[in-house]
Each structure stands twice: as structure tokens, then as C-alpha cells.
Design brief:
The chain is of the alpha/beta class and 308 residues long. Helices cover 49% and strands 17% of the residues. Strand 1 (56-63) and strand 2 form a beta hairpin.
């Protein structure tokens, strides 16, 4: 095991190549897909940008001098491509805009008026930095830094896709383990984006919480806690809790109230009549016992008559 550990360190310090980048990209998509499928029903998975139901071209770039990158570009079919360059990776991925040309590569188009906050030219020196929905004059990635971008404008060029860049091109920075960590980081960001951009998705996220509050109210009602002189006021105050929770999630109070009405309507007859249920059980049990007693008595009488 010691030799294997030393060998992994030695291999990790070697420069990454196309095979390692392809394994990284496949591991990333597999992990991301599993996270989405565990978190959301099929109807809501469209909210996640990198969900693998959409084919991607995994566009990898390796710099011989400084870093490597991977971009997930929606495509008609799943494929992987990799090229090697001499320049720094940040300059290759985010080239300065040439005012005399219109740059169009895949989904990258000139689009300078998106209204994104402008932050100048960030310098990335730490690991696992994420930038989303910003307009910058350029990005400098140091050898110690790694970056993930989504929905960015750089040098006036719009980059909507997920782009992962590392200032170091050693294999250990593009391992399957790192791919899973990056997929989880990307998933968490997309989960937040989906939550704030879609009321329908917020309803999906909030439903378990609202359901529990509604069940608590129904349970109190069944116990007779709203039967006093001020029962309706107490009931209304509790009902406001579910409305307030819906508001905190940015969804309509009608949705919260519909959950309560649905659960109230879906209750079984026995749940709506908790007092009658044990009484019915007792009556049915007594009847069954009486029938069994009569059968036993009748059978015993026949047995005695037959032997006499």
C-alpha cells in the first residue's frame, strides 16, 4: 500500500492529458446527475443547467505553461474534445474582445448589456472560487487558484455555460475525486439559482414543510383544541403560520391553503371520526366473539348427540 500511495503522488504531479480530462468530465456529469435525481422530481430537473439529460460537448483545454479548463457546451450529441495551447489558460478561455470582429463560438456571443454587476478584474488565488452573474474586465487565475463560472460576461463576451478552470495542470487537480467535489459545488449553486428563479421550484422545495404544518393543524382540530369560545381565532392564528411560511419561501398563500384543504379532504372516514373508530372495533369484535361462541356451542352439542 505504501508503494501505491507513492505512485499515486508521482502520477498526480504529472501534467494532465486528454484521457484524464475525459475521465474528469464523465465523473463530473455522472455525479451531478445523481445529485439532481436525488433532489428533484423529473418535472423540476430542467431547472438544473448541467443535468445530463441534455447532451454536452465537453470542451477541454490544456495549457503547457499555465493551467487547464473544461467547458460544458450543450450539443446535439455527447462528445469530448481536447486541445493543447501554449498561452495561459485564463487568456485562452477569456480572450480580450477584438472590437473589429464579432466573436461567436458555440453559445458564446457578444452581449454587453445584460445588466450584470461589474467588479473589474478579479484575481483568483484560492481554491474552489465560484463566480455567477457578473460582468468583469478579465480574470487572472494564479497557479494556486481554481475557478468555476456560470452566466458571466468577460471582456464584453457572454459565457452562459459552466466553465471550470484550474491554474495548475497537474493530474491531481483533475482527478475523479476533484470532479465529484466540483459537481457537488456546481449542484449547490444551481439549486440556489433554481430556487430564486422559479416559483414552481420554490413550491416543490417548500411542500414538505407546508405539509407538516398543515398536518399539525389538522391534528389539533381532531383533538378538539379549537372547540372553545375562541377556537376559531386559535385556528386562524395557526393557519397564518402556513401562510407565513409560504411567504418566506416566496410563494403564494393560495398554494399553502390548497395544501391544507387537500390534506383535510384526503383524510379517511376513520381519521375524520376518531371517536367512532374504537367503538366500531369493539362492536365488530363482540359480534365476531358471539358468532364464534355460538359455533363452538353448536359443534359441541352435535358432538355430544352423536356420541350418545
Amino acid at each position: 500500500m505504501g508503494v501505491g500511495w507513492l505512485l499515486s503522488i508521482w502520477n498526480g504531479k504529472k501534467d494532465v492529458g486528454a484521457p484524464q480530462m475525459q475521465v474528469y468530465s464523465e465523473t463530473y456529469l455522472k455525479k451531478y446527475k445523481s445529485l439532481v435525481e436525488r433532489a428533484a422530481l423529473p418535472k423540476y430537473r430542467k431547472e438544473f443547467a448541467d443535468y445530463a439529460d441534455v447532451p454536452f460537448m465537453m470542451n477541454a483545454v490544456i495549457s503547457r505553461t499555465h493551467g487547464a479548463s473544461l467547458e460544458l457546451i450543450p450539443s446535439e450529441e455527447s462528445k469530448f474534445q481536447c486541445r493543447t495551447v501554449e498561452d495561459r489558460i485564463d487568456r485562452v478561455v477569456f480572450p480580450e474582445k477584438d472590437p473589429n470582429t464579432s466573436r461567436v463560438e458555440g453559445d458564446m456571443v457578444d452581449h454587453t448589456d445584460r445588466g450584470y454587476p461589474r467588479i473589474g478584474r478579479p484575481k483568483v488565488s484560492a481554491k474552489s472560487i465560484t463566480l455567477y452573474g457578473l460582468s468583469v474586465d478579465g480574470i487572472l487565475i494564479l497557479e494556486t487558484g481554481s475557478l468555476m463560472t456560470k452566466e458571466m460576461v468577460v471582456h464584453g463576451i457572454y459565457y452562459p455555460n459552466t466553465i471550470i478552470i484550474n491554474g495548475n495542470n497537474q493530474r491531481k487537480y483533475w482527478s475523479p475525486k476533484v470532479a465529484e467535489e466540483d459537481a457537488f459545488r456546481s449542484f449547490r449553486l444551481d439549486l440556489i439559482i433554481a430556487y430564486f428563479s422559479s416559483e414552481e421550484f420554490r413550491e416543490f422545495v417548500a411542500t414538505p414543510v407546508l405539509t407538516q404544518i398543515a398536518k399539525d393543524i389538522i391534528a389539533k382540530k381532531d383533538k378538539g383544541l379549537y372547540r372553545g369560545k375562541h377556537g376559531y381565532i386559535l385556528f386562524r392564528e395557526d393557519l397564518r403560520k402556513i401562510v407565513a411560511k409560504a411567504g418566506a419561501h416566496g410563494i403564494s398563500h393560495e398554494f399553502a391553503e390548497s395544501i391544507y384543504k387537500f390534506l383535510e379532504k384526503e383524510k379517511t372516514w376513520f381519521e375524520r371520526h376518531p371517536v367512532l373508530f374504537p367503538v366500531l372495533l369493539a362492536i365488530i369484535g363482540t359480534a365476531i366473539f358471539a358468532v364464534l361462541a355460538w359455533v363452538i356451542k353448536w359443534s359441541y352439542g352435535k358432538f355430544v348427540t352423536w356420541h350418545n
